[in-house]
């Protein structure tokens, strides 16, 4: 008796979001990228249903970070004062996207002005051809003040901009709509609030097909199981046909993984060489979340980028 | 032998003009308790709600610093009553905002006057057979041929009239029985009351007194106490009265009050308060109806578990601690006088049985009143009080749950919220140009919002684009949307010379959404556990002291009730008092209430893992999952097409 082929089919799929705009499309990127499209759980269905390959975005900060451990910062020590050069180096390391993080505008971390942020944006746009993610400092007032200027400076580039949250979504949603960008909706590891933010921004007229969702990420050993189950539930909701949960997802792995003492503590002989340990911590977190259904992974260390890329090549 | 610290001081409260003696070092809030003056205090005196603001006009005090007072308020010598120790004689002014002035509130014409109700609820069909009745007995006097003793003669006569297998008589009745019988030539009126399966001879009077027999039904709420005077012969409700529960001084919810009582060993004090409230209601009604209190022979109380404990001074402390048990769910009938209730000295008091610590006799009474327990089809009863209780089921099974919805729809925790009394906005409309029209109870000048008005306001603000789906004010160009003391607020009624404005604040809206989310989450948990969809429901009963004109469409629009067609939803008002009336008039109904309490399955939401999730999903207008509200989607699409 032949074994019947059992294939689970789903009513819905993850929506597709294209980032970047080439010259013909009104931007200056050398190419565009597309994420999403999965119609099954990761590694759980026919290859043609797996959707687009997940992408790696590398973090570039608008200001030299003073809290990065040496094992991480040494890779970029020579370029950290120039977001443009830093971004170019990341692209050499294999970054599909550059995530420009405006940490420096935060009132407690330098309080840089909108003009500084715009300059950093222009510098990165000029230095690399990959599409950009523009990530605020997560201080609502300052983001509302600065991010509209950043958005305007990158108008036409079809960037991914954020993040907007339940308490603060109107200003950035409005400029993203006006400047033709895609939007990141954020929630504190709560799938229902995540969905509520999606509804709120679509109620403002923002197209659901241009949203990428973000749930605060938990690193390995620091709540990764929560992030994993949220990612998995979101994918299952998308497959069940829930349009307000069908957006691709982005995870902030670099920041979270490098906060773990296991990743950065140099003086811990029993734990092995810190130079290998940090990237492994970051890569393990990333690989785990990729299996939950993440579409974009933010990373920091070139070594972990290489490991994660290798994994993606194997699976997708 | 008074030490300096124990010095007696006097505190004057204005504008009431009340004076009270206190010990040095006591707080102003304590003094207000002693003077029986209501100061709003949600936290029960912990100093974090900032509601108990008063102005010290004269006198020395010591106050803990707080950021709940603005510099302006501090400049006016405003203090938090709970955080301020009295150091000298003092004059204190209580600002008007404390709202609940002493005295009685109008009993909002409830339920029975509701048009929809009359059509739907015929009330359970119980024959009039009151729990306590008076029967006139004409007996023949003993003779040489008939030497049955007086007491047994009485029993024989009673059994001629009533089917009473077991009768008992109190010793005091027995002591005077012979003289009463002889004096009246064996023509007496026996007052007999049901005590479980036993009939008790409560009183024996000479002559025919059977024409006057009254009972009172009491809805013992956390925020309000309602009394109905019922003629036990005709079955008619003769009069109604309501008052605030004066325990409110000790905390707005009963958990706070239990904590207060524990910390201050004030259980007696709390009992005194509630007993006093009930007695005040009784004397008011009796005087108005020219009825002697001794003609009231029965008292039927429906209240939540904690309130029944306070009334009877049973230990309520374990209600708030795991595993959340009551001292008694089924309270046997007692003599009302033993609890201090001033009806006939030997009159009986009955309490509706509770299901669990958080589902009390008020809900059992609600089930009885709506007839849910006899319904063939599936029904949902939602009672919005200080908590939101939900019962799902039919004549075969019943499940219930209680969500700590908070008293927002009772007007508590809402800046200009109030009970359904004169001047309360009970109907609120906003046109497409955002013009506001209101209707108030008693057509008085609008002074605040009662439950139905709050529900309308929430629905209309959302519908007219003043708030977004999380309830946050949208950035609209409207002069009425301003930054107030507590964040953004929207003016609903402009002030005029005499009357202050009525506003709704961002905090109010958040509280209302939390309340409705708590209730809806409880409904969802029960419906999911039993795999019932809204379409399976035959009727949804919405109960509570909202006001007279509850707009059911609005309750659906904000997602407080499951999406069923309008004609299945009934606003039924105060079902607790209705159930109490029914049980007063029918011994059988009282027995049924025992069966109801026994057969309900209680679902503890606090230990239910899906409750919190459902709550977050429901903390949105109307809900995060719009597929649960297909008819709202259709309506929105229709209105979008029209515009």
Task: Explain what you see.
The complex is a heterodimer of chains A (316) and B (643). Chain A has one domain (17-315): Dihydropteroate synthase-like (TIM Barrel, Alpha-Beta Barrel), CATH 3.20.20. In chain A, the strands form two sheets. An eight-stranded parallel β-barrel of chain A has the order 3-4-5-6-7-8-9-10, surrounded by eight helices. Chain A is 39% helix and 15% strand. Chain A contains eleven helices and ten strands. Chain A has helices at 70-73, 83-93, 114-127, 140-153, 170-179, 191-203, 224-239, 253-257, 261-264, 274-292, 302-315; strands at 16-19, 33-36, 55-61, 97-101, 132-135, 160-164, 182-187, 211-215, 249-252, 296-299. In chain A, strand 5, helix 4 and strand 6 (160-164) form a beta-alpha-beta unit. In chain A, helix 2 (83-93) runs parallel beside helix 3 and helix 10 runs parallel beside helix 11 (302-315). The model of chain A has no long low-confidence stretch (mean pLDDT 95). Chain B is of the alpha/beta class. Helices cover 29% and strands 25% of the residues of chain B. Chain B contains 16 helices and 29 strands. In chain B, helix 13 (575-585) packs across helix 14. The longest helix of chain B has 24 residues, at 506-529. The model of chain B is unreliable at 99-120 (pLDDT under 50). At the A-B interface, helix 6 of A face helix 15 of B.
User: What spatial form of chain A do the alpha-carbon principal axes imply?
Assistant: globular
Largest sheet of chain A: 8 strands, parallel, barrel
Mean pLDDT of chain B: 88
Average predicted confidence as pLDDT of chain A: 95
The protein's oligomeric status is heterodimer
- As residue ranges, the low-confidence spans of chain B are 99-120
In short:
Chain A is α/β, with parallel strands linked by helices and 316 residues long. Chain A has helices at residues 70-73, 83-93, 114-127, 140-153, 170-179, 191-203, 224-239, 253-257, 261-264, 274-292, 302-315; strands at residues 16-19, 33-36, 55-61, 97-101, 132-135, 160-164, 182-187, 211-215, 249-252, 296-299.
